[in-house]
Amino acid sequence: xxxxxxxxxxxxxxxxxxxxxxxxxxxxxxxxxxxxxxxxxxxxxxxxxxxxxxxxxxxxxxxxxxxxxxxxxxxxxxxxxxxxxxxxxxxxxxxxxxxxxxxxxxxxxxxxxxxxxxxxxxxxxxxxxxxxxxxxxxxxxxxxxxxxxxxxxxxxxxxxxxxxxxxxxxxxxxxxxxxxxxxxxxxxxxxxxxxxxxxxxxxxxxxxxxxxxxxxxxxxxxxxxxxxxxxxxxxxxxxxxxxxxxxxxxxxxxxxxxxxxxxxxxxxxxxxxxxxxxxxxxxxxxxxxxxxxxxxxxxxxxxxxxxxxxxxxxxxxxxxxxxxxxxxxxxxxxxxxxxxxxxxx
Length: 345
Fold this sequence. Notes:
Layout: E1 7-12, H1 16-27, E2 31-37, H2 41-50, E3 57-59, H3 62-66, E4 73-76, H4 83-92, E5 96-99, H5 107-120, E6 124-126, H6 134-144, E7 151-159, H7 169-172, H8 175-178, H9 181-197, E8 201-209, E9 223-230, E10 235-241, E11 249-256, E12 259-262, E13 265-268, E14 278-279, H10 295-308, H11 316-335, E15 339-340
Parallel strand pairs: 1-2, 1-4, 2-3, 4-5, 5-6, 7-10
Antiparallel strand pairs: 7-11, 8-9, 8-15, 9-10, 11-12, 12-13, 13-14
Helix pairs in contact: 1-10, 4-5, 5-11, 9-11
């Protein structure tokens, strides 16, 4: 490894999540941060200095950073509405791409990004970082061992009140920047549901609303309930609220023919003699703090995909399916009708 050239990383965005991307890339032996881009070059330079980065250029021009020959990977850590356009530009520049969610706020942007990535042949990972959370890994191991048998119903819920106390609140409440309850944050729950089931969604039916008075001034309905039918008849539910008054909660319930998983609790009639829930000590996805999220596992996986030439299980092609469910939820809630998948322009 000592003689192997490290991959240079360019970060666009200097907010909260960019700090965790920088830390994870700097810990990986095969990558180093070579550039940071912000609308304010001084802010980019300050970020590099605060993270004690060496040989890191500061940019206020994204296109100029994309032309930097020392940069082979782009990590997009900007507000939601910029992701698709910036992702397309990175793909056209031939850069491997780590994209924060949501990758697009509408179907037109999603399809354009999907096309650009396919044509470029680059490696991608969309930051559904909870796939590396220890509870997620534990559940996946139970499913692989068929502990609860065939799942017939699955539920994953996201409850996180995002108000003035939260850094992204000022733009998150806007329709043109936040998108919807699912797009801005609840998509983690949609992705979790898909990750556990490994099935194709074919139909969505949803409802959404504002609380009385809309005290947080959301421009879109911040609460939604989405029912999802999968190709083999399995049904799922995702509830999402970004105006709830409660600590952060991420619920997981998987009902199988031989047992049930409720977060870190398991009951299975295949475990003979079990009389109640078995609780497994582990790290839960129970914090809104991005420093609590397993970015190191995600980014180590991404770098390994680039070096080995393999595709990620959470590449853009996979993430498109999560985003289609989120977009279908908006359509269904507005029309009060079920929506078939995949979506068409």
